[in-house]
Amino acid sequence: MENLTTMMYVFLGIDIFSIAVLLLMKKVGSNKFVYNAIGVYMFVVCILLFMATPTEKFVLKVLSGVLFIPGIVATMNREKNFELGRILMIVTIVLGTAGLFLLG
């Protein structure tokens, strides 16, 4: 249980860093490599949330699966509408990490 708590705080630190890059450093956040790296991290959080949700809690399992949709839209919207993609990515990261903290 101690390792899980440590992992959650590591995720929280990466979340804060990712959100700071996307919000405060727009020039760095709009870089293709940085944006894609944050996108990969976002999908890792979504996958962990989906896998950590017990099968008995069907509604939570569906909600964690639905969390992939804004993540995909955020990743695809980088060239067309960076602001919308950035906001969706931040919301997905925050909801995914909050879900992991609630389950853990």
Q: What's a concise summary of this model?
A:
It contains six helices and no strands.
Reconstruct the topology from this structure.
Elements: H1 2-24, H2 26-29, H3 32-52, H4 58-66, H5 68-76, H6 82-103
Helix pairs in contact: 1-6, 3-5, 3-6, 5-6
Give keywords.
transmembrane helix; transmembrane; 104 residues; membrane; 6 helices; globular; 85% helix
Descriptive report:
This protein has 104 residues and is mainly alpha-helical. The protein has one domain (2-103). Helices cover 85% and strands 0% of the residues. It contains 6 helices and no strands. α1 packs antiparallel against α6 and α3 (32-52) runs antiparallel to α5 (68-76). The longest helix has 23 residues, at 2-24. The protein starts with a helix and ends with a helix.
Number of helices: 6
- N- and C-termini, Cα separation: 9 Å
Q: Provide the low-confidence segments as ranges.
A: none
Which structural class do the helices and strands define?
Answer: mainly alpha
Helical residues, percent:
over 70%
Q: Give the C-alpha Rg.
A: 14 Å
Order of helices and strands: HHHHHH
Mean pLDDT: 83
Question: Strand fraction band?
Answer: under 5%
Summarize the biggest pleated sheet.
none
Number of strands: 0
* Dominant shape: globular
| Domain module tally | 1
